[in-house]
Fold these 4 entries.
Entry 1:
Amino acid sequence: MAVVFNKTQGLTEKEFHYCPGCTHGIIHRITAEVLEELGVLGDAIGVAPVGCSVLAYDYFNCDMNEAAHGRAPAVATGIKRALPDKVVFTYQGDGDLASIGAAEVVHAAHRGEKITTIFVNNAIYGMTGGQMAPTTLVGQKATTAPYGRDESLCGQPLKVSEMLATINGAAFVERVAVDTPANIRKAKKAIKKAFECQLEGKGYAIVEVLSTCPTNWGMTPVDAISWLQENMMPYYPMGNLRNPWEVE
Amino acid sequence: MAKVLMKGNEAVGAAAIKAGCKYFFGYPITPQNEVPEYMSKELPKIGGSFVQAESEVAAINMVYGAAGAGVRVMTSSSSPGIALKQEGISYIAGAELPCVIVNMMRGGPGLGSIQSSQSDYFQATRGGGNGDYRTLVYAPANVQELVDYTMKAFDMADYYRNPVLVLGDGMIGQMMEPIEFKETEKMDLPEKDWATTGTKGARKPNIVNSLRLQAPELEALNQKIEAKYMEMEEKEVIYESYKLEDAEIVFVAYGTVSRITKNAIDLLEQEGIKAGLIRPITLWPFPNKAFAEIPATAKALMSVEMSQGGQMIDDVKIANEGRLPIGFYGRSGGMVPAPQAIVEAAKELLGGVK
């Protein structure tokens, strides 16, 4: 019998704790596959801070650091400066990266740290139970925005990738989604480029992945995908925002 | 090796490099700016790395990353900046990582002043971060000690896999004194086989982490690190006792103020009053055992600090176990006690207890 699919060596045998329909599992898998395909698993050091993916150290089959909320780009900076030949990545959610860790991500990009960030944007705080994030859409309900996000009080959702694309030290910025098999393939391609960018020493690279949170959105997994397509994608358009080195 | 004249803040950087530290992450704050300035000049020459972080919060997390990667790493700051680093220090203790943190204390609370102070004793010895952790705290009284204990701090950090704090103040940081970089004995230190350096496919992944979601696992971690703290209390206490013999009054003072207190002891001697000093060099663990050396002639203790109302005095009370009356003399906000003022306070205390 022909083998058509093998689980990547980039993941451990540990079963994911993620909720049914959550897309973290897909993003973990494609990130791990990229590390394996690039042959850098043995040189990879990951950093996962507070959030749903705080237990990522149990899943990625490489050296891992758990970091304080928002601080992953600073921790990754320390690792990369100490071990410049290693492949260092952060895996962060939107509450973590866009709110408490906004300064750390901006300055890691600003310094052009040769690290790669996988930024999972599901427009909500998942782990703590569905609170409003800087990325929550206007009108979207959250446990700390029970009447829906009020633009007059909370502003419009932060477009992190557009913001980082204004920074010269950012060598690669792309927004992708994992809502369809075709988009998953595109997302994997972008993640691969973001790691190649690091391997070539070009600078900071980030891939924002639009993701779902059926549990905290109060939807079935199928409805959550539809909601993402109808509401998140128009506000957070997909595509490359910065690639001055034309990493292919 | 010949003596060289160096400013405290530069000497601490030179000592760190001498101890094998090639990585420094800092943020500007007076009165310690010469530490990052010195490191930014010297580290590139030896293939190391200096990063001026975007904040103290980021700097200590860079330290976390580099320490987890198994290298010798240091950061420095002054009081309000150390307050910002407390989150990271707690994580570093929880993840059992070695690093050295220098605090050149200035006046507080809040933005306070930029002058010398000792009002961060609680922050240093109680820990401003969350959780059951301790940091070994060295309190040098001069630039030579600053050099010696900074070098020792790296060995202790590696041995215990715990952050070590070097607690100076604005005066020690800014003052120039002749110093010598002594050749020290190499400590037998364990391999850093826990560091995240990439598996190379040759071992299971290493994980640097302070998270233990299961209560029994977190309790087990706390028991493990507490065992280290008990070992430190047994083995790492350092103090100086000065002219304790026949003393009527025993001062307790550390760092800069201990030098001023020694002047006060000389002045009291000229007036026929015998005074002595216990000088804690490790603030944590506190030298409780030094108090056993206090002679029967002693009528009172006096804690002398650059702090309003005193902070170390709480530890003096614990060590004294209710035996002798305890007085206090202190100045704060960047004001430095004069020897004569300490003399007057001591005479007043002795007058009251006679």
Entry 2:
Amino acid sequence: MMFYLGLMWEYFKNYAKTRLTYRADFWIEVVSDLAFQAINLIVILIAFRHTPTLGGWTEAEVVFVFGYFMVPYGIFSCFFDLWNFSERYIVKGEMDRVLTRPAHNLFQILLENMYPPGLIGSFVGLVIMAVTARQMGMTFDWTDLVMLLVLTAGAVMVYFGLYTALTAIGFFTDAPTGILPLMFNLQSYGRYPVTIYNRTMRFVLTWLLPFAFVGVYPASYFLERSGAADLRMALLTPAVGLVFTAIGLVVWNIGVKRYRGAGS
Amino acid sequence: MTSMYLDLIRIRFLMMLAYRVNYYSGIVIYAVNIGAYFFFWHAIYGDQEAIRGFTLAQMTTYVAVTWMARAFYFNNLDREIANEVRDGSVAIQFIRPYNYLLVKLFQGFGEGLFRLLLFMTPGLVVVCLIFPIELPRDPAVWLLYAVMLVFSFIINAELNLLTGMGAFYIENVDGLLRMKRVFIDLFSGVLVPIALFPGWLAALSEWLPFQAIAYLPSAVFTGRSTGDEALAAIGLQAAWAVVLIIPIMLMWRAARKRLFVQGG
């Protein structure tokens, strides 16, 4: 364990050194990440100028969910995002290098692709939550804080499991499958109340590609409007996270066994 | 001379054709995005008949056709130029007996032709099967729309040339290009029709070239702008297409003098 924490710190120091050489780039990257989220928020704000509620949800509630959505997403994009995996590790064969080292291969790969600016999105999300919570006159006590940590951990595990499993497809085929970009677009469904979708979409977002568990389900734990059914879904988040993490790790390990190197 | 540029179109078209499989997943991604906004607007409308003159049916059609138009006019000319400036291969382009910007434009057109035939058209068929879309019955509208799409392509390509040339001045433009992309998606009306913008934002958009990329053609397609209004929209597109040539020329002249190639 200490070994892994030490490694993490070393990787982070390395990251900081390479990034500090191009400071301006770093900030432009951060701002452009946030611009993307800001535009999505603007869409919500514009839409609410034409309606008081969205499927029974008020503006403050929807924006609160939006803010919550950014929190696990930021953590995911900092530690678990392996966007370029297939190209870099399979096609170019960098996986060879990783496999000859003593630390677990997935851990090394995650650290090599660490992206600390992603966390800034999480902080902005927290700010959005705080602002809308004030608007709604919500009160917080320490159990809410604990639940925020637990639910966010669950949501991050959902991301981690799902994307690890999908990234592992790279072990089985080196052709680009287009599945990852598809998922990135699909996950934005999770930041709106699931009640606005039809039955099929709701089922898919809850059980198959559980993006509702990275946004609206856990977020509704904190909202006053939520009934018993909503709370049940919210509390399912850590369980769904554990199940998907297990699936992700199993698929990954099967994939690594199939890895044969890229030659040359 | 002309045949050289025509060949550029042909070559890029064939090149895209070789990688056509990548675009099948693109159709699904666009359908996913259209779906997200379809459900979103559905919930926003609720019981309302129309918002700012858009009926729900019109809105659905607007969302679908705008995204599919984006599938056509979208290209990465900006990134291509930036990459060629960064890796220095633009120096070779300068020596060759052609106009570099025209080459990029025609390559973009080859890509656009591919996207029109193998992305937008099948995509529109797929989307029509999934979502309740009302296609215009009047053939004149289709004709107008076809002309407007060509202008959409030209204006978007011109803006890409302009921002791509930013690489002559800034060493790393990736973040800026990403920001430009989301910015254009908002201000061109892809995410929200400009008619729904709050007053001051709509007024601002009317003085920017972006609405000519997506909003104006889609307004004609959905039957919002008809007759003289539609013709005026085409006139506005044509005007922007011509006006944008000026900054491109100015920037190009300055950029050629500034170019320094890093490394070799």
Entry 3:
Amino acid sequence: MDPITVIRSRTVVMPSTNIDTDQIVPARFLTTTTKEGLGKQLFADWRYDAAGQPKPDFILNRPEAVGCRVLVAGRNIGCGSSREHAPWALVDFGFQAVISAEIADIFRNNSLKNGLLPIIVDDETHAWLLANPGVEVEIDLVHASLKLPNDRSVSFPIDGFARHCLTHGVDELGYLLSQDAKIKAYESRRHA
Amino acid sequence: MSDPKTMFEKVWAAHEVLPQTADTPAVIFIDLHLTHEVTSPQAFAMLKSRGLKVRRPDLTLATMDHATPTRTEQVFGGAPISIESAAKQIRQLEVNCAEFGVELLGLQDSRRGIVHIIGPELGVTQPGKTIVCGDSHTSTHGAFGALAFGIGTTEVGHVMATQCLLQKKPKTFAIEVSGRLRPGVTPKDLILAIIGTVGVSGGTGYVFEYRGEAIRAMDMEQRMTICNMSIEAGARAGMIAPDEITFAYLKDKPRSPKAAAWDEAVAYWRTLATDEGATFDKTIEIDAASLEPMITYGTNPGMVVPISGRIPDRRGDAVFDAAMTYMGLTPGAPITAAPVNVVFIGSCTNGRLGDLQAAARVLKGQRVAPGVHMLVVPGSQEVKREAEQLGLHEIFKQAGAEWRESGCSMCLGMNGDTVAKGEYAVSTSNRNFEGRQGIGARTLLASPETAAASAIRGRVTDPREFII
């Protein structure tokens, strides 16, 4: 995974509350055995009509969404199913961060493991971002700060270990594997 | 004496390979990893690409349930599985399990079923264990006093490679349920009421512990229905203290401890319940006796009303308006006015024997209303056999319902079983999200009793019209 330190992008806003992972990738696309290519299926039932043609008024089909790396979503995005296909699809589409006032646990975990930054902001910042789609923001992961237009910035909570892994481009499995001796000691203790 | 602890804290502490520090999450040992065809292929591929093995195949159990067909001819009759990519995914799991030495209860295995139903049936689900699976309804196993939660595929790979997970310690949330459920009111109704009270994100960051008289009075299947839907309130795990009912359920299950090991295990399990005086980060109280049968009207499980009630009128609220547009229902109308085209009985929420018995009690001697398609899908092949021994399948078939092989089926519409666009399905499953049961499908979540009563009348129906 490439190290992530700063993300600068205009935002795309999807204001719906409780955007569940069934919307992000409907279950019928989960019979894939790879991670690749799920960007095509991202928000499939909102994005395409019955004939499979893009709906022109859906935000991700609009010209202003092209090239945007940051998704601002309504509260509690990622609720429901544990499918990691949801962050895979968002990343494959081109997103690098999701900002909301509330992000569901499993989705948040899964996002961190795929270089998709789950950024939780306060209600006021969230409301402002929802009301101002397309603004340029800068996410500074090293300092855990989100810079908004007019030199405003807010900090966001991020687990220190996850931040370390993301900013250094290392994955968590490497750390777990390096704990092998401790795991072995635990296993023998349990069986004693 | 040490400080009083909650059950969650005891189970967590017993599995700390390394405790959480300011810089690192805890390393938590996993006692049981359940895996299935949909969320494992990319994890096996990762192991392969990094030259890793499954560290503890003895603590890993695979089955197939999500993408598997439920039509007998496709499961046992040699007919091709109608969804080609599903067939491929099933084959991939067979290949992966063979290559990595993981036990697989495959498509035609008599012990196969929904992963959260077979764990308890086999007796591998036990109090005090840490249990994970790449599926959010892993919370089901918490009914035994296990710490059980869903994980993504990257974490599936972590567990395969190391038998451990990096975890931040969640907070604790007590759900105190006083009193007893009234006749015709089921655990499904209780959990829907709890989700309606807590909200669909109210449990985010917490582990629930369901407590109180109503919970203690439930059998294990009922407790599993409760814990199953913890995730629908945002909580990754929900737990219930093990007691004599738990021990009696597990005794003599195929893989539960035997002889001296059994006595030792029970002695340990008795220590797990939350200590007197232990504190929770949050507590709510619910009076079970005040509840009615509940049913959802919207597009998340928190949008729920008592069956004698009306759909609320919150026009102007964006979530509500979007849900009403999708559902095609009228704000303020009685929920019993909602039409029904499909009834689904099954899933990891309500696909156990007791659920099928409850539905059969309502349906016995009745007919499904003309035009209603009713599907009854046992949660496992074991449930199917038991139900058939009791003749339940005959009751369903005589009522006009279809009786299928086990699997996730219409809960998530990725296996050929779907609800058509615009149709109303009263479903005993766990999610009424847009499109969950099929593109444009409109789901109303309810108990098996309510689902069966609604099938008979062809509209949403209070089951107490049939069972009291």
Entry 4:
Amino acid sequence: MSAVELSMINLSFDGKGVFKDFSLKIEEGEKVLISGKSGNGKSTLIRIILGFQNFNSGKIFIQDKLVQPQDFRKTRNLFSYVNQDVTLRPGNVRNVLSEIAEFSGNDYNAEFDEELSDYFEFDMNLLDKKTEELSGGERQRLGIILAIMLNRPIFVLDEVTSALDEELKQKVVNYFTNSDKTVIAVSHDSEWFQRGKFRKVEW
Amino acid sequence: METISYLGIAYLTILVIPVLIINKKLSIKMNKDVVISIIRMVIQLSIVGLYLQYIFDLNNTILNVVYILIMMVVASISITKSSEMKFKSILIPVFVSMVILNITMMLFFNKFVINLNNILDARYIITIGGMLLGNVLSGNIVGLNTFYKGVFENQTRLYYDLALGATRFQAIKPHLKAAMQASVKPTIASMATIGLVSLPGMMTGQILGGSVPMDAIMYQIAIMLAIFVTRYLNIFIAILLSLNTMFDVQDILVLDNFKSTNS
């Protein structure tokens, strides 16, 4: 089964073509690294997959099913997404996390995972801070832990290691390399393809 | 009540002359606006005075309802014009919410608060309706702009929340709360200070018209409560109704609905 398949996607903004007959097939369990120079539409591609970006023509299949516009609300819940700046709501981290746990699309164990917290060296005391007080690296690790806790079949990680140090980058990459789930990562960091598990997609 | 004669108005107009002179001396560029505004005020109110007299004399139920509906159309257009959104995207949600809530409130007010025999009596429905509409107007402008400014500026967070499992309503909720607060804040503040600094216009009018203060106060309290509730519910329903045109079926904010998307 394929996790995500894009077929002949065309998209242009103000006459400038971003995607022309773009196709990409990602198998279930596969690890894909979306790479290439900035401004080539990597984040746009992620938005298309998640249904946050309309496109001019083409088809998208998720778990082998053709996705119609009205289906995205459902298919979205198959993805554990971390966005570039981990734009969580402002407020106390615990409160923000429990609000997320109460979102209608969710049904996961909302208790903060201490094992993951240890692994990613995320200080549990940070949960008592405000989201807007966390540093970029702290937010990225929080976003990653949250994405794992959501327990959905496909990870979509948009530049989630950019603010981490070497050692942590390695840990994050190791975690996702060894995961059984499908992983779609956008990154400029070389750590992602060192282990040879990630298929690099460039255009 | 002592009526004000044309001469009385003329006296006050004379007092504007020093203002114009000071403006001129200090080169404050305001005189043209002042003169035009005063002339507009006189003409508009004179027309209102004439046709209100006419409508009150006729006191025809259908005419009263039509008049109220016209007021609502004008108010809806005015709200839409003052918003950051295009006509086609919010005019209908604003109008529908206004019609449902204001007509309900007007009838409720006339029936249960004033206990009128004819709940569509022109003298009441047009004046009370006008006060409610005027307040809904400013409340909706503040509320809609607060809401869509918040949504527009925080699209990344909105989409992140949606991806994290939020429904559209859950994702917009922080902005909805902010918009409702911004919308009724002035009414709450004026309820808290009313009477301390100045007497409200309606009360002043009633007292000058010969009402005893306690009667005027009852009206004022009733109208403030009605304004508060109507304003609150109006922005809530207007925003909810507008979501279906402002977002598409994928919950993507339709940027084309904004007057300028590069703000």
